[in-house]
Amino acid sequence: MEFEWGSGQKPFIENGCEVNTCFGTNNRSLLRMDQFDAILFHVQTVSLFGWPDIRSPHQRYVFVTMESAQYLTIPLTSSKYKSAFNLTLTYRRDSDFPYLYGAMEPVPSPPPTSTRNYAAGKTKLVAWFVSHCSSMSNRGKYVKLLQKYIPVDVYGTCGPLKCPRSADNNCHKTLLNNDYKFYLSE
């Protein structure tokens, strides 16, 4: 239950939930599995932990993912999963519990205008970090077309440049602060 919001009762109270008597935990031995009211299944890791042996009739199973369905590693069409989940917690706005990327907030007053040149001192034009090479959006085709006109450095599984996950912070700094004027994101 940790994800990014914490455990215990505090996150429910702090976020003004109508029902704030809930208690979140990732301690599987706190109760018997059939005694929890709801169990969240992060579908990318469900194969590591497996399914509870017993499920009570009142219990809710919550499907949790922040990935597009095309990248899921479990076959959701399997009869095992077909009617297993009662609720969803995903990045989609139509989820039972939307867990959206980022946020937009109104600015109380117009930001000051800046004369800063954000491209000054940057030596490269475009970078793209990507691990899923094929996508339904055909973003790879877009990048190939773009590369006909301007240089695009492709990092990760889908490109010749490498930036290991163990060096994420250094890669991020290079990408945003030092070398590149633009970063492609989907």
Structure described in brief:
It contains 5 helices and 6 strands. It has 186 residues and is α/β, with parallel strands linked by helices.
Structure commentary:
It is a single chain. The protein is of the alpha/beta class and 186 residues long. 18% of the residues lie in helices and 16% in strands. The chain is built from five helices and six strands, in the order H-E-H-E-H-E-E-H-E-H-E. It is extended, with a radius of gyration of 22 Å.
Strand percentage lies at: 15-25%
- Report the major sheet: 3 strands, parallel
SSE topology string:
HEHEHEEHEHE
Number of strands: 6
Tell me roughly what share of residues is in helical segments: 10-25%
Tag the structure with descriptive keywords.
three-stranded parallel β-sheet; 186 residues; alpha/beta; 6 strands; 5 helices; single chain
Which secondary structure elements does this structure contain, and how are they paired or packed?
Elements: H1 10-14, E1 38-42, H2 46-49, E2 60-65, H3 79-82, E3 87-90, E4 124-129, H4 139-147, E5 152-155, H5 168-179, E6 180-184
Parallel strand pairs: 1-2, 2-3, 4-5, 4-6
